[in-house]
Structures are given as structure tokens and as C-alpha cells.
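[Q] Does anyone have a clean C-alpha cell version of this?
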Amino acid sequence: MYGYNTLNNNDKKLMLKEIGLETINSLFQDIPEPIRMIRQLNLPQPYSEWALEKKLVNLAKNNIHTDEYFCFLGGGYYNHFVPAVVDAIVNRSEFLTSYTPYQPEMSQGLLQALYEYQLLMAKITGLPIVSSSSYDGATALADAALMCDSIQKENKNQKLLVAKSIWPQYLEVLKTYMSGRKIEIEMIDYDIKTGMLNFDELRNQIQQENPVGFLFQSPNAFGIIEDIAKVTNICNNAKVISVLSFNPLTIGLLKTPGELGVDIVTGEGQPLGIHLNAGGSSLGILSTHSKYRQYIPGRLIGKVKDIKGNPAYSLVFENREQHVAREKANTNICSNQALNSIKSAIFLSYVGETGFRKLAMLNYEKTQYLMNNLLKLKDVELVFNGMVFNEFVIKFPISVKIIIEKMLSKKIFAGIEYKNISEIENTLLISVTEKLDKGDLDYYISSLKEILA
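[A] Here you go.
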């Protein structure tokens, strides 16, 4: 109980006999021999429970995290505040241990929670059909691209137009997905002054390529808010499906994508009550029009009344799914983020419409405060002049690697080096959330001023 035990040869023989095998190698017979590891694992001697706990705690102390440092990191994942009520409810065993609700008579609570998520997300996206859910923002965007191909494949070329100003990690996932379908990706550039889409190039490429769809992001990878209505107008005139990846918090200040004419809306749900968790897990948002319901992957929850008139919930339209459609399913990723969907539903229900608008305004106003004050520093420039929401790209007169390193010494995560997108040297993507107060922002400004001096 207090130490550890190792298996002896007799133990191994008894275990193999119990499962009807003669050798341990028989356990791995399905793995081709050329790729099997034949050497011993390079592992230390076993630890007792308390020794192992002590070692892991000491290793964890080497990490630096957002509870100790001021966080100005963004790039798709943000250090937002998560109300205690979210964890208190979602960590109940009824939710935490639930599995796929194939048996509705056993899963009414889980099904209702996911149904509520669909209703809330339909309000935010402005489109009625919501999957519950996709793996993350990147896979939701890739799934939307596959939807475009399935919907348009009879009438269009197997080409996809994609804005260059989407997150680079999203583009990598998208390329992986499209290679399987042999869908060619053409990139649409951005305006070097505003950071917004190059609309002339978009029009020309749509006319020349006759693509199945156009994928873009708002706020984009520079934090710039795109003219969504202009994009959808161009796409609608050419009968090209428009796909938007968006930050759901922006809806506290802006019209929903559905209101602006977007055909398929995707996004990363992490800002809606989900902790950073060292980069995962997160939540993929995916919604569309009713006419595209048969093409959307993921689970759809329906609501009816039972014979007594009480509400009843069940998985519906499962003919699109792996366990029914097999290789013809709309997606072959079986994992989803049901628990994180419930977190977002709890978060949205808790903050309400007024709180949601206030939260969005705090992000916007604090971003403006920091950005405008940074621009007062000598030789500090704004790379793009388009309107931003909660992050922006700044150009500095010295190496941003030096800035990041020196700011770390002041317990500040300064931002993300951004030349891989903007292709401009010494640029930093800086993000601001509601968790940073005026004192935190002033400390960032004064620290940076000292470094630049």
C-alpha cells in the first residue's frame, strides 16, 4: 500500500493465462514488426506515491503561468476570467463522467444542457443549426471547408479561397484536411495599410477560379475587424459559400455573422468560460443555415414532448455520423468537446446579455487604452490602421526577442512575435482582456518605455 510492487515472471504468466495468451508479444501482434520498439523503455526506477508526488510538484514549480505573470498573449487563446460558477456546475459527476448520449432515456440532463448550448450559440452566430460540438476552432473551420466541397462539388472546381490573414495554425490544419480531398487552396492577400482583406483580389480570384467557398477570419490574425457584409456580398453575387471564423466575444458589440449574410460560421469557443489549460482543451463552434443541415458534422440535439407533455431530448439526424454513415460520414473525427460546450452554456447563461456586452466593451476599451499609449513611445508604430477588438500588431525599433525576454524579467508575457504573418520584422501581437486593469496596463507601458530607452 505504501510502497510499490513489481510484476514477477509468475505474475505475468498468470495474467497471460487469464486472457488466453502465451506470450507478451501476442498482445502486440496487430502492430507490424518493423515499427515495433524492441529496446527497453528508458524509465527510472519506480517511485512510492509520496515520492512521485513530491517530484511532480517540484517539476511543476519550474513553470511560469498567468496567475503569476501579467498576460498579453493572444493569437487565438486568451486569458479571460472564468466565473467560479462554471467549474462548480460542470464538475458535477452528472456532467463530468457523461459519455455520448446515445440512450436518451438515460441522458436527459446532458442532452438538455447541450440543447441549451445550441440555442445560445445560435443566438451568437445568427444561424439556426449548431453542432455540439467540434474539437476546436481550427477543426471547425476545416470541417466547414469540407461542407463547402460537399455542397458545391457538382457545380464548382475543387478549389478553395482562403484569406492569408487567418491564424497560421488554422491554415496548417486546413491544408491537412484538404489534402485528403485533393482540394486546392488559393490564398487571398490583405491590404498592407488597413490589414483588412484585399477585396479587389477576392473578386478577381472568385471570377477566375470558380471556387467552392471562401474562408476568412474576423477579427483576423492582426486583430483587425473585417467588413463581413462586403465579403458576403461578393460571395453571394458569385454563388460562392462564405465561411467565417470569428471571436464570439465580438458579438457583444457587433452584429452576428448570420445577420451579415455569412453561410457557415465557425470559431474558437475558449473565450466563453474555458480556462487556458496550457493550450487545451478548447471548443470548436460550427453553425449554418437550415438548408445545409445534412452537411454539418457533429451532434445535433432535438427537443420534443413525451406522452405526458414533458420536454424530451434526443440526438437527431444521426445519418451524417460515423456510427451510422461509416466512411460516408461528414467527418471522421469522433471526438468532440461536449463538456466544454456545457461550460460555455453555463458561462453565457450566467453573464447574460448585459454582462456579455459589458465584457466585450471592457476588452475593446482596454485594448484602445494600451494601444494609444504605446503609440506615444518613441519609434513605436502601429502596423495596420484597421479597427481592432482585443489585440493589435505593433512595430518596435529593436528586436522583439529582446523585448519579450526583458519583459519576462518583469513578470510580463509581452505578446507574440508576429513576422510569420505580417512579414514585417520586429512586430509583436499584443492582446488585452478584461482581467488586466489600468494599473496592469500602465505597468506594461512603463516597463516597455524603460526597455526602449
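[Q] Thanks! Anything notable?
[A] The mean pLDDT is 92.
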